[in-house]
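Researcher: Going back to the complex we discussed earlier. I've cleaned up the inputs and rechecked each line, so this should be the final set. Can you rerun the prediction on the complete assembly and write out the structure?
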Amino acid sequence: MTDLEKMNQKFEEEVAPGGNGEEMKLDDTRRVKVLSPGMMVFKRFIRNDLAVVGFGILLFMFIFAFLGPVFSPHEQTQVFKGIGSMTKDYAGATYNTELRYTIAEGQSFDSAARAQFLLALGKEQETFTVGDKVFYYVSEGEGTYRILKLDTVGTVLVGVFKTSPGVTAPDGLVEAYEAAADNKETSFTLDGVVYRITKSGKAAQISTEQDVALASLNVYDAYTQTNESVVASYDFRLASALALKDEIESFDLNGQTFSIHMDEGKATVQDSSGAEYAEISSIIVNPLDQSIFLSMDFKSQVREAIDNGIQRFSFMEDNGEEVEYIINRVNTTFNIKRETPTELIRAYESPSASHWLGLDSNGMDVMTRLMHGGQVSLLVGFVVIFIEVFIGIIVGGISGYFGGGIDTALMRFVDLFNSIPFLPMVLIFGSVMDTLEVDPMARIFLLMIVLGLLGWTGVARVVRGQILSLREQDFMVATEATGIRTSRRIFKHLVPNVMPILIVQATAGLGGIIITEATLGFLGLGVKYPLASWGSIINAASEAHVMTNYWFMWIPAGLLILLTVLGFNFVGDGLRDAYDPKMKR
Amino acid sequence: MRNFILRRLFLGIFITFFGAMVVYTVIRSLPTSYVEAVARQRASNPLSTKTYQEWLDQLNEVYKLDVGIIPGFFGWMGNAVQGDFGESWHFGIPVTEKFSQVIWYSIIINVITFFVQIFISIPLGNLAAQKQYSKTDYAITVFALMGISLPTFFLATILKYVFSIKLGWFDLYGLTGRFHTSMTPIQQTFDIAYHMVLPIVTLTMLSIGGLMRYTRTNMLEVLNSDYIRTARAKGLSERVVINKHAFRNTMIPLVSYMSYLIPSMFGGSLITETLFQIPGIGYISYQAILRGDIPFAMFYTTFLILLTQISLIIADIMYAVVDPRVRAN
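Model: Rerun complete. Updated structure for the full complex:
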């Protein structure tokens, strides 16, 4: 076999695999593998790594935004609430520093008298007078004073007894006085009446005494409401004070025997059957709200906790529920806070298994909102670019096809539109929509229209430029020769030829629109609550404390925007290269 | 050439005029209840010395709201041409006075950004072009695209998060520090400069991407041209080829690109200034626009339109100056 024959053989084997010897014709379609222009673009596109990466990113974004909500277990505007314990001020407690007066039945001890009493107490005088009445007080234990009114029976001056006018002294008074004076006693009893000796200068006065009031720093709390009147009575208080002073375990009152127990700063009074009757303490416990009734057990527990310096205690409610209380000390007052189980919005909750990106300031799932926000952001991008391309093709097509005066006029119009500053105009629209309180959904559509109307000039220019060069080509001469309608010539023959470059332009433009929309959202002028867009989600970061503490609220949204725009730019670049291989990027 | 410039100037004036008219029409077409609400709100402000009716009267007087849109616009234009842009509602002083107070902060920030941007992106863009499809090229391209794809507010927030909160190097907001008033003039200057660092970094990072890509594309185009092949064929060193033959030719489109940056240099950067609360023209305008300060909004938009037109005219003239081929046409 000659070399030539060998080559032929090899060639035949190559063109006809299998080597069955079937001869191929020159125009056999199998000889030349023809790729359609679209296929060639596709092949060049997938050879570009960056473009493929960009396409992958976009694919992911679309799946995330449009399929994600289907799989997300949460709703966009679902507010997550949880039972959290919220500490609320419940009661206050304070050491009583003011004397409280219990006035004996049928007596009066008004504020003027109280002031005099306090003065006398401060000056350590034994007696004080209010008007023409003379009062005397006795200390009955720490912080407890028994106030008595004195009715002078007579005066002893240098051993001479003189009865007061209008009073008849009982027999033996002088003798009894002398006996008492010798023993340096301040009081004596005669015929069951107690007489008190008060000295003023050299004179000594003998008076009968009458219980008026009991001033005490102690607070009395009855265990049951039926006991309250007894506990509030002068007799009860006096008897208990005396018992406390003398450290007697029991006292009798109204034919009843009460027992009294001292216990770390408070005393408990029990009746004869051993049931708790009243509590005496120097700590006042008051509810912060009139509607709250504090049970005695609770007050007792508060006092115990304060005495023991405990900051936290739990108390069994009537319904058997254990509630935690916290005691905060502020100087001499104690604030008792109740840990109330409240239904709280779980705002700013950190990422967890059920909420991958946590919850936002309204307790909504950030991940789900990102998905829905992605829908809005992507949709706004596509609708706006559609509006831009639509207007751009019409204006650019007409301008490029007709040329001349129409072209000049339309292009000046494009220049004019192009000169209008984009951002200030969009801001003005945004603030007007704010003022008019446009419905969030309508707002999105208005936003799309405004963005589209302000951005079509670039497309118009590109279309015009392309059509200017295309209309001189042979196929356009052919359409003219065959007498096709002008509108058909433009939109059926010219525009499809502009399509490739338009797709490139639109893809690259999408990124810009998404950024614009996000910027508006960030400034609070775009998509509004309860709807979301990526920009409006990042808006949360304009509050410094959110930016500082809750990264999951704004960084994911920002990354999604960055990736999406990057994806559109990569794909746009890739498409440009693929359509026009000569002009590499 | 003179005819060209004259024609271009005329077109610029034409567009500025009608652009302002469009903006005016838009602002005027907004629901009047809004304008009234603004007047009411202005009047209820305790700092305001004017009543609701007075504000409304002023509004009617300055903008001739009681006459139609077109006469109203001509009234405004007549005053504006004489330099009278009215009194800002929000700031209570003449618009031009407020403008001259704040414009310098914007200019300083943006001019510095401009130079930093040029020094970073042109060398990198050239490098990427020379090593096309290398790892360096891909890295630079991705970096540039990242810069383009980053939303301003996100970058600024990230920078604040990292440098202000985590590292504590800069203040979160403002142009002056806490002890600014007790500083010597030199310290005050440094204080302001210090507070401008983050905004400048933000603006630079956002803008280098575009310029870098533009430089790279142009450099590639030049490098693939015949005269570069000729220069190489002559046996010139690569450095001479790049610096003398290639780079100079890339300057033509670059110069025009830079003149497109003029509006951003003098028009302020609304978002960045707002985020860092730098009292430049951008932040001030943002406040004014949000509060419906029509005189300021009109002034700012007209100012921007004018800047854009100037930049376009300069770009066209620059083309002609730099490239003799354009001049010939």
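Model: Worth noting: The mean pLDDT of chain B is 82.
Researcher: Good, that matches what I expected from the previous run.
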